[in-house]
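Q: My collaborator sent me two sequences in one message, no labels, and asked for predicted structures for both. Can we handle them in order? The first one she listed is below.
A: Yes, handling them in the order given. First sequence, followed by its structure tokens:
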Amino acid sequence: MNIRQKLLTIIEQLPDEKLAILLNLALFLKNGKESVQLMLVSQAYQDLLSAENDIYDELFAY
């Protein structure tokens, strides 16, 4: 299974509130105008890694 297929499989399983966080991060990455350092402090990235959000574990479980 390639990366795109794995990501699509994961996306299909996520609830809307986690999809919203993933969308924010994906848009940030797509724009690519800011540096990686700025991404690390972005709200989308902080939400992705927050303790109350297990999306990080779900994304990297495969």
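Q: And the one she listed second?
A: Here it is, processed independently of the first:
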Amino acid sequence: MLSLIFAAMIAAPAPQAVQATLQSCAMEGGRWVCRYAVPDIEIVPLPGNDVVADAPAAILGVGSPEAASASGEGAMTPETAAVPPPVERRAVTLDAGILTEREARLVARCADAPWYAVCLPDDRRAARTLKQKQDAFLAVRTTVTARLAAQDCDGAVKAALDGGYLDLASQVRGFCATSTAAAD
């Protein structure tokens, strides 16, 4: 099946003669992951095409009509193209939850399943218990987030510790340490 899909991809040319080339495929986490190399493409605006014409001039590589009429040229050079500096953002990774992937699948399949679903009674009970555990974690995480939004780092750490979530408390402490260091 997979070989048929690859053969169809190789046999059918891309609309603009731009094709991604397969770099590698490997089994990762119980799933097939394939990596491709995609060649660089250039977006050329078409007259009357509003979708492409509405794109920012920095992306299209052309100047705005006001800049073109002021300079007398139809396109801006890379030196004159004004590109704003990237916005500095802090990336904080929070737990997606306390359930493993297998447990999350069990909850999705059996926690609120109708009577005719293919779930054993033990699976239903375990899924309901895990769902309650996940809901309790999400409630504590919501409280922690609200306290962080109110600039109450100590209260956020206390809420995480009261819930018994040491990893969340550690993440909150790290977040508060970086935000106070950035403020100084």
